[in-house]
């Protein structure tokens, strides 16, 4: 890395290039260690003791720290800067703070969004013109009902001068020209996350990328689409909503996959939303294996059970009739599972992606930001 030093002399201003020397106070080491620590907290489902233990192991192997700034210094900085709460010698006493939870969401957003092209100014674009906040190149005559902020003042004054001259200058309704603006919409999104046991089977951690995407999407909506709504729910044997602040602590349970219950809860949530554009993003790695009948669970983990599948497909049809589009992100490659997703998508008239874990975030963000499914009724 090279630093630039500005030199000012009597007769010139120039640049001298020299080697970059980090500050002595450990600021850069803290920032670098914090990024790793936040990732470890996400993987450890918010278990600070476990994350610190992993960080110590990595430090021993890769020598992140030295005598000038050791791991104890980093932990003290975490406490002083408000990232950890707790006292005593044992790391088991430490807990994450709200600042840490927000930092994890922000880092998740940066990790995913840095791979995408910047687009828009924080609202969902549609192919329709109307009342909005982004100007287009199109102009038209004034019509009753147009607001003052839509009037192109420069062109309207020019029209008045041409039509009436300077001697008897005046502006009439016929002189007014309106600047078309791109209509912006709001969207209500429910993100469904599969937390069945298969999300950690075969030594592959599928829940951490799903959590990362959920936190990044939550941070994106809060910062760039504040008028949108995002609800998050998880589904295993049953389905239940969770808060954004709960995401770092989310872990997989000993559950089957009750997709039916997840879709039912998502529909109940979206029915209460006032927006016209409603969508479900479902992250899953397997087939539905469970439904609830009264107080008992009907389960079948060994195959695509017709009873479970038909009820799940019925839910997809109900969503379509309510105008709710489902986009399924399947992080599995089995042909028979992909066939089920194709059938499910056809019934809902939604979309499906067969994504690797590495590409999951980019798929979801591109789909959300472009909002190609938005309709205006």
Characterization of the model:
With 377 residues, the protein is of the alpha/beta class. The chain folds into three domains: 27-96; 124-184, no CATH class; 186-370, 3-Layer(aba) Sandwich (Rossmann fold). Helix content is 38%, strand content 24%. The protein is built from ten helices and 15 strands. The protein has helices at 27-43, 48-62, 71-80, 98-113, 153-164, 207-224, 259-271, 306-321, 335-348, 360-370, and strands at residues 2-8, 13-19, 84-85, 95-96, 124-130, 132-141, 177-185, 187-194, 229-235, 239-242, 277-284, 290-293, 296-299, 324-330, 351-354. It has a six-stranded mixed sheet, sandwiched between helices. Strand 14 (324-330), helix 9 and strand 15 form a beta-alpha-beta unit. The longest helix has 18 residues, at 207-224. The model is unreliable at 1-13, 117-134 and 371-377 (pLDDT under 50).
* CATH homologous superfamily annotation of the largest domain: von Willebrand factor, type A domain
- Assign a percent range to the helix content: 25-40%
The CATH architecture of the largest domain comes to 3-Layer(aba) Sandwich
* Count of separate DSSP helical elements: 10
CATH topology of the largest domain: Rossmann fold
Averaged pLDDT: 81
Helix and strand sequence: EEHHHEEHEEHEEHEEHEEEHEHEH
Number of structural units classed as domains = 3
Which term fits the overall shape?
Answer: flat
* Gap between N and C termini: 54 Å
* Lateral arrangement of strands in the main beta sheet: 10-9-8-11-14-15
CA radius of gyration:
27 Å
> Into which percentage range does the β-strand content fall?
15-25%
Task: Specify the structural class.
Answer: alpha/beta
What are the low-pLDDT stretches, counting only 5+ consecutive residues below 50? 1-13, 117-134, 371-377
- The biggest beta sheet, please? 6 strands, mixed
